[in-house]
Input
Amino acid sequence: MPTAHIAVDHYSAVHLAAETARAVAGRCGLPGALPDQAAVIASELAGNLANHATGGSLFIQPLPLGGGMEVVAADHGPGISALQQCLTDGYTTGNTLGAGLGAVKRIATDFTIRTQPGTGTLVCARLTGPEATPPAGQEVGAICLPADREQLSGDAYAVVDQGTVRTALVVDGLGHGPQAAEAAQTAIRAFHRAPDLPLPALVTALHRALRRTRGAAVGLLRLHPGRAEYTGIGNVRVLTMTPLDVGHRLSGQPGIAGLNMTPPQVRAFPLPPGTTAVLHSDGIDQRWAQSPSPFVRRLPPHLLAASIAHSHRLTRDDATMLAARPSQRLP
Output
C-alpha cells in the first residue's frame, strides 16, 4: 500500500486527514476504537500544520513491519520553542505550533518528535493493536509515493525480520502508472516467498519473477548487528548515515531486473551502533545526501524517511525512501 500523502495547505485538509487515517486503520485491522483514535491523531496534527506551519504534509500508512499504522507530520515551519509545555495533555492554545500534541502523545502507542527553530518539526504517532509487537524498537521507516497525477505507485518496498537479521527491498518499476505498479508488486510477492535466501539467489529470484513484466530496478539490503550487505540492479541507491557524516554511497549494477542482469555482486560494509542505512529509488533527489544538516543526520529512521521524502521528492516520478537499523529482536 503506497503512503497516503496529504498536503496541509488549507484547513479543509484536516477533515481529509482524519478520514484517511480512519480508513487506513481499518485496512490495517485495528480493532474497536482505534480507527477513531487514528482520526483524532491525524486531525490534531493536520490542524497544527494548517494553523502554524509552512509547507506541511501528513504521511499516513501501515507500519513497515505490520501490526498497525502511523501518522507522520513534516513541515518547514518555525519549530516549537516550548516543546515540553506543548506535550502536556490539555495544552490547547491556538497561538503556537504544538497545540494538541499532548493528546496525540497520550493516544499513540509510540510517539516521536524532533523540532528545531527555523528548520521545522517532525512528528510520528504510531498505533498498534493490543497483541502487536510494540513499534518503539522497530527502528525502520519508509515512505512510498506515486508520481503526481498517478493513483498507483510504480515503486514499492518490503521489510522482513528473521531473528537479528533484517532484509529490506526497494523496487522501482520501469516508468510509472499501472504497468510499473504491476512490476513492483510482482517483485514484492517474489520477495516474500523466500526473504531469507542469500542475496544473490534472492535478486535472481526477483529477476525471474519480473520477466513477465516490464521490469524494474531493485535494491536489496540485509542488516546484521554491526554489518550490512547490499546488492542491486538499476538505479536504487544505498548509503549510511551517522550523526557525524554520510558514507558508503552505493548504487546497483547496470541493467533492468526482468530484462537483462549481470551476475549479482554483494557489497558488504560495517554498520557501527547508531548507524542508519538508507535505501531509496531515483524519485528521491540524490543531492539530499551531499550535505545534510546535523538535525537531519540525528533523526531516527522513521523520521528520517519522512523528512527526506518531504523535502527531496521529485514529484514527476514515483519515490520511495527507506531508512533502517538492524533488528533489535533476540535470535
About this structure: The first strand starts at residue 4 and ends at 8. Residues 93-98 have pLDDT under 50 and may be disordered. The first helix runs from residue 13 to 27. The radius of gyration is 19 Å.
